[in-house]
Design brief:
The complex is a heterodimer of chains A (about 120) and B (about 200). Chain A has 5 helices and 5 strands. With about 120 residues, chain A is of the alpha/beta class. Chain A has a single domain, classed as Rossmann fold, CATH 3.40.50.2300. Chain A starts with a strand and ends with a helix. Helices cover about 45% and strands about 30% of the residues of chain B. In chain B, strands 1, 2, 3, 4, 5, 6 and 7 form a 7-stranded antiparallel sheet that branches. Chain B starts with a helix and ends with a helix. The chains are: A alpha/beta (about 120), B alpha+beta (about 200). At the A-B interface, α1 of A face α1, α4 and β4 of B.
């Protein structure tokens, strides 16, 4: 089974980095990208990804609110929050909003895969 | 205000811990060995900060941190060093854009600034066994005064002094200069230093 991933980050560089990491791994395909929470919710409805890699702090709508909305849709999509060190408070809010897992920047290939497998298992 | 030798030695230890944490996280991000050293620490009046920074083109990334200690942290990259960072990060992702900065270049520098600022403060939190929460880093590309002045205007009422950590990062034979400007709530910083 190929895991369908939606990458959500307002940083163009981070979207590119995550896409490059995941496309170099067998069994993963990037089905879309979004640069804010509003786009994330729309694309989650349209693309029905297995996993969303969700940045926490974004303009227009942040990753915490977007996660709560996506989880409210009732689908099977898992959400991995992408956070920086020192943002424990925001991580707690994200877990309460329904996030299934998290990964702390900077990203490395094995850790990204581990985080995705962690929420799928 | 004067800071005694013992406190300065402890601050030096905090700077080393912050720099080591930055080097470790940048190394993880870049996939190569990275070294970061703090070459010099200056303690300056807030009003002298613009003169110390100078009026050259820089890319600045700044955040606030709350806990023990609290304050502002700004990392400033001269454009030449910022270009070296983008060349390292964007190898195999995007072609170099000559001397200018593309949207992707600025996005990459912003992430490095994010890693440096958050890792530096996280190094302090680890050393002090303290919880320090940080805000989302903001990036500005402009002349030094245009980056620093709006921050100083915001905080001039609350803060009197700043520490400037003149630093360099060595990665893949490239020397990258950067300056870390920490504007602390001095009482909280001294309380934190006394814990060491």
């Amino acid at each position: 089974m190929v895991v369908k991933i939606l990458v959500v980050d307002d940083s163009q560089f981070m979207r590119k980095l995550l896409t490059r990491i995941l496309e170099s791994q067998p069994g993963y395909t990037i089905v879309g990208e979004a640069e804010n929470g509003v786009e994330a919710v729309e694309k989650a409805k349209q693309l029905n990804p297995d996993v969303i890699m969700m940045d926490i702090v974004m303009p227009i709508k942040d990753g915490i609110k977007a996660t709560a909305e996506i989880k409210g849709l009732g689908g099977q999509t898992k959400v991995v929050m992408c956070t920086s060190v020192g943002q424990e408070e925001k991580m707690k809010q994200a877990i309460m909003a329904g996030a299934d897992g998290y990964i702390t920047k900077p990203f490395q290939g094995p850790k990204v895969v581990e985080a995705i497998q962690g929420v799928l298992n | 205000m004067r800071i005694d030798l013992n406190k300065l030695m402890k601050l030096n230890k905090m700077a080393k811990e912050g720099a080591q944490n930055v080097a470790y996280n940048l190394s993880q991000m870049l996939g190569i060995d990275v070294e970061m050293k703090v070459a010099k620490i200056e303690f300056v009046d807030l009003s002298d900060v613009p003169d110390v920074i100078g009026d050259r083109e820089v890319i600045g990334v700044y955040l606030t941190f709350q806990g023990l200690p609290s304050g502002f942290l700004v990392v400033l990259f001269p454009t030449k060093s910022a270009k070296k960072i983008t060349n390292l990060l964007l190898q195999g992702i995007e072609e170099s854009n000559g001397d200018g900065f593309s949207e992707m270049d600025l996005s990459a520098i912003s992430e490095v600034g994010n890693i440096i600022t958050s890792s530096f403060i996280d190094g302090w939190a680890n050393l002090l066994n303290s919880e320090i929460n940080i805000s989302t880093p903001q990036t500005v590309h402009d002349m030094g005064s245009a980056v620093i002045d709006p921050i100083l205007i915001q905080i001039a009422q609350q803060y009197d002094n700043a520490f400037l950590f003149n630093s360099y990062i060595k990665a893949k034979n490239e020397d990258i200069n950067c300056e870390l400007l920490v504007i602390p709530e001095l009482e909280k910083l001294m309380e934190a230093i006394d814990r060491l």
